Amino acid sequence: MDLNELLTRGVAEVIVEAELKKLLASGRKLRLKQGFDPSRPHMHIGHAVGLRKLRKFQELGHQVVLIVGDWTAQIGDPSGRDATRPRLTAEIVQENARTYMEQFFRVVDRAQTEVRWQSEWFGTFKLENALDLAGRFTMAQMLAHETFRKRYEAGAPLTILELMYPMLQGYDSVAIHSDVEFGGTDQKFNNLAGRELMTQMGMEPQHVLLVPLIPGTDGRKMGKTFDNTVDVTLTPADMYGKIMSMSDAVMPLYYEILTDVPLSELDEIRQSRDSGTVNPRDLKMRLARDIVSQFHSAADATVAEEAFIRQFREREIPEDIPVHTLNAPMTIVDLLADSGLAASKSEARRLINGGGVRVDGTKVEQYELTLEPGADVVVQVGKRKFLRVQ
Question: Is the peptide bond between 303 and the residue preceding it cis, with omega within 30 degrees of 0?
Answer without folding.
Answer: no
